[in-house]
Amino acid sequence: MKKSLTMLLSLIFVTSALMTGCGGNNNNKTTNAGEATNAPDATNAAATEEPVSSEPFEMTIRHTQVGADKQKRLAILEDVVGKVQGEVPGLTFKLDGVDSDVNRKEKLRGEMAAGNPPEIFDLFGSPDSKIYAKESKLLDLTPILEELGIKDKFSNLDPFTYEGKIYGLPIGGSGEGFFYNKGYYTEKGWKAPTTFAELEQQLADIKADGKVPLAGASKAGWVPLMLANHLWSRYAGPDVTAKFPTGEAKWSDANVVKGFSKYKEWIDKGYFKKGELGFEYAEYTTQFTSGEAILMYDGTWKSSVFKAGQSGEGMIGKVGFFNIPPVEGGVGDQTALMRDVNNGYGFSASVADDERQLAAVKSFIKNLFNEEMQLRGLVEDGVLPAMKIDQAKLNSSITDDLMSEIVAVLNSSQSSFPAFDSLVQADVTTEISNIQIQSLIGGQTTPEKMGAALQKVQEEANAAVE
Amino acid sequence: MLRNLKKSLPHVVLLSYLLVILFPFLFVLFSSVKKDNNEIALNPFGIPKEFVFNNYVEAWVNAKISTYFFNSLYISIFASVVTILLGAMFAFAVTRMRQGKWNGILFSLVLIGMLIPNNALMLPIYTIVRKLGILNTHWALIIPYIANAIPFTIIILAAFMRSLPREIEEAAVMDGLKAQGIFARIIVPLTIPAMVTVFIVNFLGNWNEFLLANYFLSNDELRTLPVGMVQFRDQYQMNYAQMSAGIVYSVVPVIIIYAILQEKIIEGVTAGGVKG
Amino acid sequence: MNKALKNPLVFTLFVLPALFLFLMFFVYPIFSSIYYSLTSWNGVSDTVKYTGLTNFKKALGDERFWISAKNNGWFIIFSCFVQVPLIVLFSLLIANVKKLKGLYKTAVFMPAIMSTAVIGILWGFIYEPNIGLINKIIGLFGVDPIYWLSDERFAMLSILITNAWQWTGFYIVMVLAAILSIPGELDEAAKIDGATGVQRALRITLPLIMPIISIVIMLSIAGAMKAADIVIVMTKGGPAGSTEVMATYMIKYAITNFKYGYGNAIAVLIFMFTLVVTAFYQLVIARRNERIEY
């Protein structure tokens, strides 16, 4: 009895000593954690595992390919994972799927603060990657890209570039516009609208017909903001959002407010699905594929849903895509399309300390960022290539109608602009997506007040010196 | 007649309250065996004509209930047991050992801990966990869980130990036992009933904890049941039938445990509430 | 007297592990929060810049912060003025029925042992506008669907109802225990004097259970100040931030907006508010109760 008590006490002491070593050596921590594998803890992993050997080692990939609609993208990633594991002896990848918005705004930010992001993770280009790069949390990819000779193959790396170095790679591009129910349009004898008045007439007619003109799912603010963003850019110019952080333009400018007002007008006319503030993004697609909503403003990535075996299978061949038509009195290029190459992969800076991990990252980049995978992304998943690809090759690989319609829209737009959240500070993004746009939808604010409130946050953010 | 009415009125009120409590569970249970949202919409209250058990199969696979369940189970049990051990030692020292004013000072210090709204401490705890290098391991939950329950555990156990007569350890000292011996052989066995109570309270607290579990773990296979369920809900929100099956999975074990330990649980949790 | 129990070394060994954890997870975090609340640290950077009381000024001048503080207030008000009367009523009823007492007690307590997260999911389904239970019920009476969680007018109320649903039974069982521990003679004596059931409940039982009601209120306040998980699960603070509470506001700033220093300032404010509310309650209300009683 006495013996066991001594044992117990010493056990407690070991435990407390372990914890006193705050920030010290905690390598033994996983041993009793059962299945707690603790892979992302790269710094410790380096200490416990012998470098340069074919001894098994693990790396984590944080991806956002979760849920039924993203299976194709997951399949591509899984193929790449398989190839890399074949090339790097001993490597096992662990795939960790997290919802995109949660990963971007909570998980990854927390992990970055903690200094233990996964080795490979889904990364938002601007402004996220720049903040992390500034704090040296990201692996500088410039030498790897030079070694692989693909540095100049990307059409635009700006969102991932900080002080001349590249810290992330876009997986693909996207453009945003209206998906429309072709079946319904044909039945009515309509075509995709070419003028704004025509679009508004169609919305009114659909409403009168007892259908929902526009899908709505605004529990997460970024969903309604896609359309709102495009509208204010039509009225105030495609480059207006970029001018907010520099102070050259204001959210409260009359033309920007005009964009909000148009959005508000559509809300008031009941064009959006009722109760939209309570719906998640997943619901958005369902409203459209079920035929309940006739139009859905969304990114080109959504085209992957309308393929065999996916949730929009029943609508194959019955979906079209168009850009927002020019608005009367709008500033700047009225064909401008909202396009982003802002989503991709980044790598933890800690990878540089471990040769084998670095080799794995190189192999990952080589196998994921190449023509073949980019084309696969386009064909299977509707993701526009982020790398330059021979036009003829591109054309020959597009087989379905929706994709060719999307490409036609891309080609007919003369310029493009990125979405607001890659241009303004995190505070402003939070303010507009968590508060303002939902207030506008809920009727608690007016377009004018919204502009003023946003401008206030914008000015505070502009003034703040990090 | 009037007398009868008077007698049954309380039951009418109470039974309607009971209905409010139980109907949501039944609603979920019925929904979980319906084919899809449409069938729930058409026949929201009743038992479905046709039982669809496929939802349970799908939910089990999609929601990885078994993984989350066992994570929650072992984290909760382990943390609760360690808390009781450490808490009992502390309570024993401050109630039965004679260290003059130190007894009172230490005990009051811990009492203050009960007043601290621990959600507000989430950010610094996050920093501690990260400095310990245990973020994204189960230790990131276990250690804070142990610590969080310490004030409550000490207060209950100390109250119980105080009520034990002094003569007990005097006899033990005569027999030549040291403090450790008195603790392990005399006090602990006598305190078992209070420990069971405390264990139940701590276990439920850990089992249900959401905030830390949501922010301190990121790997899917490490997640606990509450977080796993929320994630499952976010991904399969449009399929309510399947979601209901998920809810049933996560609720049934708790109800079974409750059915068995009902008296103990009620006694424990309310004691926790009163003392807290 | 007995040396064995006076050994300071053994005393220290017994006290130390728990004390260590307590200091590390209760005391240190408080000081750490206060320290960072005076900085503009973004949570990622290696440099921490001291900014004095700027964060506090900003928080106290931010309408959004006050909305979230007000929502914590709603939790308190709802539990004091809606839940507590119900709790007392139901406890008295259960205490006075002869049959089914056990069933009532067991059943009403059940929600209290379940995870708030799961209850949030369950109620999210019940509030669902198209197929949810509540709209289906009110639909029977011809009422149009209400968008419970997405309509700013109803969202907070919906959360409060869910919260009450989860905790009312828990408090009922507490109050019930107090009622049942009242000596039967008191009640018998009153009965002989010809007092009706209602009179007895109001004149005898109620004053005697005042202390436990006071505890119920204290616990509700403590719970209200901590509320976060139910909001995160049910509405994520939306629509338009209308259901945000202080704890979720803190998390949003500290993590989502890269404002760790500011988030800690909110933590300190939560702390201070809790102290003020608790002290206020103890001094003004709890005291008076005691006087009435003894």
Structure commentary:
The complex is a heterotrimer of chains A (466), B (276) and C (294). Chain A has 466 residues and is α/β, with parallel strands linked by helices. Chain A is 46% helix and 13% strand. In chain A, strands 7, 8, 9, 10, 11 and 13 form a six-stranded mixed beta sheet that branches. The longest helix of chain A has 19 residues, at 2-20. Chain A is globular, with a radius of gyration of 25 Å. By secondary structure, chain B is mainly alpha-helical. The radius of gyration of chain B is 24 Å and the shape is globular. Chain C has helices at 8-37, 54-60, 63-96, 101-109, 116-126, 133-140, 152-180, 184-192, 197-226, 229-234, 246-256, 260-293. In chain C, α1 (8-37) packs across α12 and α11 runs antiparallel to α12 (260-293). The two termini of chain C are 41 Å apart. Classes of the chains: A alpha/beta (466), B mainly alpha (276), C mainly alpha (294).
In short:
The complex is a heterotrimer of chains A (466), B (276) and C (294). Chain A has helices spanning 2-20, 42-48, 71-87, 100-114, 125-134, 142-148, 182-188, 196-208, 222-236, 240-243, 254-268, 281-289, 355-368, 371-381, 391-397, 401-412, 426-442, 447-463, and strands spanning 57-63, 91-97, 120-124, 161-162, 165-166, 168-170, 174-181, 212-214, 293-299, 319-322, 337-340, 343-347, 416-417.
What integer is the average pLDDT of chain C?
Answer: 86
> What kind of sheet is the major sheet of chain A?
6 strands, mixed
Strand content of chain C: under 5%
CATH topology descriptor of chain C: MetI-like fold
What sequence of helices (H) and strands (E) makes up the elements of chain C? HHHHHHHHHHHH
Mean pLDDT of chain A: 84
Give the N-to-C terminal Cα separation of chain C.
41 Å
The total count of helices of chain C amounts to 12
Share of residues in helices of chain A: 40-55%
Total of domains of chain C: 1
DSSP strand (E) fraction of chain A? 5-15%
Going by CATH, the architecture of chain C would be: Orthogonal Bundle
- Structural class label of chain C: mainly alpha
**Rg of Cα set of chain C:** 24 Å
Shape of chain A, please?
globular
